[in-house]
Amino acid sequence: MTIHKTRIYFDHAATTPIDKEVLESMMPFLTSEFGNASSVHWFGQTAAVAVEKARRQAADALNCRANEIYFTSGATESNNTVIKGLAQPGQHIIVSQIEHPSILEPAKIMERWGIEVTYLPPDSNGLVSVEAVSRAVKDSTVLVSVMYVNNEIGTVQPIAEIGRLIRELNQSRKQRIFFHTDAVQAANYCELDVEALGVDLLSLSGHKVYGPKGIGLLYRKAEVPLQSLLSGGGQEYGFRSGTLNVPAIVGFGRALELASKNRISDTKKILELRDYLINLILKKVPQARLNGDSEHRVANNANVLFPESEGETVLMLLDQAGFAVSSGSACSSGSLDPSHVLLALGLDATAAKASVRFSLGRGNNKKQIDNLILALLEALQK
Known about the structure:
By secondary structure, the protein is α/β, with parallel strands linked by helices. It folds into 2 domains: 8-18 and 263-381, Aspartate Aminotransferase, domain 1, CATH 3.90.1150.10; 20-259, Aspartate Aminotransferase, domain 2. It has helices at 20-30, 42-62, 75-85, 101-112, 130-136, 159-170, 194-197, 246-284, 311-321, 340-344, 349-353, 366-381; strands spanning 8-9, 69-72, 92-96, 116-120, 141-145, 178-182, 201-205, 216-220, 289-291, 301-305, 323-324, 355-359. It has a 7-stranded mixed β-sheet, sandwiched between helices. Strand 6, helix 7 (194-197) and strand 7 form a beta-alpha-beta unit. It is globular, with a radius of gyration of 21 Å. The relative contact order is 0.18.
């Protein structure tokens, strides 16, 4: 197999490199301006001002008030806070079967705590229908959580339509339904306006938008009665205790600002590259099949089934050749179990394990894709 000296990254759904402008914004707070944002002296207040600037940048990206943004350690914490902090025993929540594990695992815990959970199945393309949500609603329903963009197959869910449905239902309900979306994979390519989407809660992660790891946020509409997971010093308006990670917060704010600014141009460029990649794969490997919806699909995702192959073997051979791809969620890819997302689409375990995810980013180009295809063809012949 041909080995490329320069390693090429096609796994942006797992994480993204930090943008140079983001890193520059962080550096003062990693060096000279190192204060604790809760301190009253100059160092602390300099940090506090920077945190509030980042909060405004995030609020601008989401079209919400700054005091509705809560910084967390990442989307896993944000998602756990939503699932564990809203429903009470005897109440009902709705999630889709293809959510990230940071939604599904807490939901299983909530079932043990006496909360009823409905797991909505997607169609064969990974779409959760508005009608399915409507049918699942009960008098006791307090929360609906449907991810904006699936991290494995890239399917874009009809979030605004579900939001409209829930607003309509709430007009005649005693028990209000709150609507949450995990928007981690959407931030670079999809509209994040929380008013247009009709969401009450939204989770984001810094390292998926060319920002730092270890930082995320939860948008929480002011009237949502959410319980805090972390008690202590009362940071984040008393909702999320813990010393603020100032450098990461500053970088996250800048990353969201850049994502909003570059969304149209990034989407156009990466969509062209993604389609170029898919067309080449389907041309060179006629038996290959695209997993997920071909129309309602985020710009950078191509999840492909290669029959009679082993996805893990293909990605290891590609890694040896210098190309980074994935077989599914990076958060659980160490597992030998087939993807729960692909199983929910109706694939059997063998087909699910024969699937590979390619996710593109700002640094990719056609020449890299051409070289990837050559390496892929070699890997499939092994």
